[in-house]
Amino acid sequence: MISNNTEWFDISRGHEEWLQLFHQVFGTEMSEDFWRWKYRDVPKIGVALRKEGKLIAFYGGMPRNILFKGESMQAVQMGDVMVHPSERGAFTRKGAFWKVASGYIGTMVGEGNTYAIAFGFPNQRAYMLGKRLDLYDAVDSLVELSWKISPKVSLSLWRAREYRACDMHYVPKIWQKMKESLADSILGVRDGQWLRERYLDHPDTPYKIISIYRYGSKKVHGIAVLRDRGESGMECLDIFGDVKDIKRLWGAVYRYTLGQGSQRLFCWITNSHQRFFQPTQPHVVPIDIVIPFNVLTAGISPDEVRNRWWLMAGDTDFR
């Protein structure tokens, strides 16, 4: 037991009750394979609250290795924040949400705890709940960048093709250039392990992973992760590469999207970092997603983090 009658969710008790609560809260199903993939290698997946033995609330976290202005740290992505509909009437310091949220953050995040910082992707309504309870402060938000695909594209030596297993050889150098080009930012590690575990081993979602190269050379300069969203267009969830080369890298992604027959290319990026894409002349639209920061416990201050996150859709667990 942590506090306020909460406890660490015991994986050995099975996943059925957790998945049932997820369905009751969000109205959608999650597969067992996805659940196990999401919480792989996490000994303490989250804080649970029970009422008469029944699971009524949960606050989870997924570890993420990050670079904080060049320094390696372990952060945690807050997720699967769930309160049973019958318990939503009391969003106070005596309510179910406060008990699981404060239990997790107070035990796991901040100075002297397992994770240096926490982040997540709540909508404005969910963020304001944590804000009113003095759990969160906003440090950024997401925007959607989009481009209409035109058949009239300029010639370029930068091309894209489907990812091959041998391309993993280039990932360490690609990641090195990316982190050097974002030395003043905070970003999740994008090494070979991340590429494999987040995208190649994903149990449910079909991604198109492409390698970006220069015509006449075998060397791979960047990797992009795409997902065909049908009429909504082609979504780029992630890009690995030197952001100083974003215009050339993105040009290759654009031409690949044209070749796939899609009429629109889009991506999510933190508002503070959309400036790196400005040379590509995107259309910018705000998204109802806030990037929060823990203020419940001592440690790194919100001002040290504000407007420093490089986050894309691939940094979430739900795209």
In short:
By secondary structure, the protein is of the alpha+beta class.
Written overview of the protein:
With 319 residues, this protein is α+β, with helices and mostly antiparallel strands. The chain folds into two domains: 6-141 and 287-315, Gcn5-related N-acetyltransferase (GNAT) (Aminopeptidase), CATH 3.40.630.30; 144-286, Gcn5-related N-acetyltransferase (GNAT) (Aminopeptidase, 3-Layer(aba) Sandwich). The chain is 24% helix and 33% strand. It is built from eight helices and 14 strands. The chain has helices spanning 16-26, 32-38, 96-108, 124-132, 171-181, 192-200, 246-259, 302-305, and strands at 6-8, 46-51, 54-68, 71-83, 117-119, 136-148, 158-162, 186-188, 208-214, 220-228, 234-240, 264-270, 283-294, 309-310. The strands form two sheets. Strands 1, 2, 3, 4, 5, 8 and 14 form a seven-stranded mixed beta sheet that branches. It has a seven-stranded mixed beta sheet with strand order 7-9-10-11-12-6-13. The longest helix is centred in the last third of the chain and has 14 residues, at 246-259. The protein is globular. The relative contact order is 0.17.
